[in-house]
Amino acid sequence: MKKLLIVVLGWLIVMTACKKNSDSAIPVTSSSFMFFNGVPDKAYDIWLDTTQVATAVTFGKNSPYRSMRAQLYTMYMVDTSAPGNKRRIGQINLRNNRFFSAYLGYDSANKILVFNTLEDDLTAPKPDSMKLRIISLSYAFKSNGQAVGMDLFSQNNKIFRGIGFTQFTPYVTLFGDSIYHFNFRRTDDTTIIPHRSDFVARPGKIYTMVTVGNLLDSATFKTFTITHN
Question: 22: which of 51, 118, 201, 221 lies 20 to 30 Å off by Cα?
């Protein structure tokens, strides 16, 4: 009887160890996702599979980051003015310990919605610096039908060149405690696009500036800034 008890106890210990090893072989991983709406006069919900991750995001606004299990998801979008119409917009692979963002825009020339997803590098800059990138949801066309690109200047100092519709720049590291006098110019000449803004940068911050509207129309061209941290 004593030998049998020892055998049973040994079996239970082995099974418990196996279960722990099995559980640890499938670690719980997480990723983060946020959404920006660049479509005027619209609000949208965003779903990843069956989970709603953004609710009624209005024009020029972004949702907070939502923590999700790191895996492949199908993305769906719902116009809140037509809540019964869930539209599939693609897939996204959320990777472990990474940050991702999605941007919805509108090309009024072609009357289509555009949807881009990016990975956000939230590695902190140096304490006296900040990081900035540009995402263009802006459109304009020359008389020959070619799209107009844009450059970003701070006064007369060029920061980015040749940004086209739906394109995005890499992050650039700039001095953090400063006010930048931003202006956008056409890439094909020195014409300043009718929009200027003073950008107040803070040390340690990571920014995305999103442009929307017609590059050559001061009534529709706008910029919005997302602070990621």
Answer: 51
